[in-house]
Recover the amino acids of this structure.
């Protein structure tokens, strides 16, 4: 068995399973009833209204292209917002505006995109239908700050939360209460139009209110919850004053809360998951089985500090090698989810790179064992890497090139080490985004 070859085949199978173009086209073909009761006429329920397309996220372009491919001229107007460099070669009709914006830290282009979307939604009427296509990254791409909060404030807040090790659930609880679009507020702005939201999930467990900060979903969190996040992550005293003032005034009832479960405006909203981490993980397991591995999907709920998860992966590898537990070699274990990194150094890297390099320390010297840590969107942290593939030789190769791996991890500096050893994965934007996959192979 060739581990590097097998990792590539498994990765390709996983990414193909969550291709957003195919997922959206399939959903629209299967859900004609969303648009009308007559399967022969996609727009019969919209004869007196408009069909408006809104696509936001790292997979926005293929998702929007699929919508135009399926619905064609039925779409009257559209707005697509994606990350810089994620146009992926797609071309959309002139009736659709396309904006590239910043991620993971919002930028002025995202601010302008938010303004245009608000203007578009405020023009909707009862007989209109808004087709919303959401994928990971939408939270940063559409900042839309509330009154009194600036883009600079949002940028500083996002950076502090990312570096604190906060989970996406925690980060988005704060974002929802600093935005005019998140936490169900897109649905509020579009009312009384009908909304259909097709969602590519990049959050563990697929919670609709967390994915993309839930712009079309009732928000169970509050201003008080957002304040708790700042306190628990010990960043409250470093937040921009405008942010803390906003959250405190909201908690005191001086600002409108996000719309909550039970609000009647969601009676005219349909939210559907069209792609998820579990789909990708299952495809990875099936591909590994086809290549002769005894394969097992352990979980798609993986969370925690990247370096601590690395210790678990190493323990699993040793268990397989020593006792054939939980499965005997040749073995493939797949885990899906999203880890976090509490940044204390000044280096360059991402959660998957840090996890992989930390695991390489424990795998040092082991033969026939490898780990692939993959960000399915092709971007791990603020880098051009998608993660890494490491094995028992990674630390040796790093030392031969003058790297102290322990010191590099201490400085959160996995990227240059893995680039130097040739273990860094550079895939470019994959066009999809369903969280991370860890694939452990033991021969």
């Amino acid at each position: 068995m060739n581990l590097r070859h097998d990792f590539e085949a498994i990765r390709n199978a996983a990414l193909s399973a969550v291709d957003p173009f195919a997922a959206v086209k399939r959903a629209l073909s299967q859900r004609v009833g969303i648009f009308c009761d007559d399967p022969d006429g996609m727009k019969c329920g919209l004869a007196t209204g408009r069909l408006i397309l809104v696509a936001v996220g790292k997979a926005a372009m293929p998702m929007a292209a699929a919508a135009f491919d399926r619905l064609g001229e039925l779409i009257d107007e559209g707005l697509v917002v994606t990350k810089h460099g994620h146009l992926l070669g797609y071309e959309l009709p002139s009736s659709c505006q396309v904006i590239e914006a910043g991620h993971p830290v919002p930028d002025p282009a995202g601010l302008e995109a938010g303004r245009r979307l608000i203007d578009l939604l405020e023009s909707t009427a009862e007989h209109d239908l808004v087709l919303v296509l959401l994928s990971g990254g939408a939270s940063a791409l559409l900042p839309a700050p509330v009154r009194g909060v600036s883009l600079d404030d949002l940028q500083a807040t996002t950076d502090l939360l990312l570096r604190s090790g906060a989970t996406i659930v925690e980060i988005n609880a704060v974002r929802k209460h600093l935005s005019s679009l998140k936490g169900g507020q897109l649905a509020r702005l579009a009312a009384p139009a009908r909304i259909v939201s097709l969602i590519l999930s990049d959050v563990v467990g697929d919670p609709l209110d967390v994915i993309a900060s839930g712009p079309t979903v009732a928000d169970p969190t509050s201003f008080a919850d957002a304040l708790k996040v700042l306190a628990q992550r010990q960043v409250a005293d470093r937040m921009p004053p405008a942010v803390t003032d906003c959250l405190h005034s909201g908690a005191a009832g001086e600002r409108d809360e996000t719309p909550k479960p039970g609000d009647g405006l969601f009676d005219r909203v349909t939210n559907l998951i069209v792609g998820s981490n579990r789909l990708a993980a299952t495809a990875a397991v099936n591909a590994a089985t086809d290549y002769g591995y005894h394969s097992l999907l352990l979980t798609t709920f993986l969370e925690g500090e990247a370096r601590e998860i690395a210790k678990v992966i190493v323990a699993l590898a040793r268990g397989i090698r020593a006792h054939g537990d939980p499965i005997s070699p040749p073995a493939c274990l797949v885990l899906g989810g999203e880890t976090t990194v509490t940044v204390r150094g000044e280096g360059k890297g991402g959660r998957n790179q840090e996890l992989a390099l930390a695991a390489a320390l424990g795998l040092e010297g082991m033969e026939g064992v490898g780990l692939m840590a993959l960000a399915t969107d092709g971007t791990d942290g603020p880098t051009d890497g998608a993660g890494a593939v490491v094995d028992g030789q990674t630390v040796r190769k790093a030392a031969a090139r003058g790297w102290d791996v322990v010191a590099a991890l201490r400085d959160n500096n996995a990227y240059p080490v893995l680039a130097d050893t040739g273990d860094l994965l550079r895939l470019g934007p994959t066009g999809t985004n369903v969280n991370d996959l860890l694939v452990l192979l033991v021969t």
